[in-house]
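Recap from last week: sequence in, structure out.
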Amino acid sequence: MPAILKQQPAAKLVIVGDGPMRKKLTELASALQIEASVIFTGAIPWQEVNKYYQMGDLFISASTSETQGLTLSEAIASKTPVVAIADSSIESILIDGKTGFVYQTENELANVVINALSDEVHLKRIAVAAFEKSQSLSVANFGNHVLNVYRELVTAKPSHKKAKSYEL
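Predicted structure tokens:
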């Protein structure tokens, strides 16, 4: 965050939620002297979480343990551009520079965020592209895909021939 604040002095880091790392993160913000730029919301009712996605210019995920990408999907559904660490579980959704921003190492994170924030028009394009791509993963599209597979199976002609039987 200090590197980001050098380039974007008005930037704010909003950490939504609560958990065992809260105390450590508060102490770290203090040690880095960035307390004025970090907001800890504490626990938020799930019905209000989308508002926090929508108020951000970026959703940044440094998680290496969230294997299902739920928060990434929520951010994309809120049309908030996503910055996330490279991971095979999200590579079909998050394409660097097209549907989001991807970094390989912790050391790259600040530069990726700074670059993302430097072009507001591109940022909006990324958000729309990610949202449009996510629509192919909707429940309705999934259901239609499964229905089409069933229809194909029902109307398909059998491609196998009945095996001949031989008596010995």
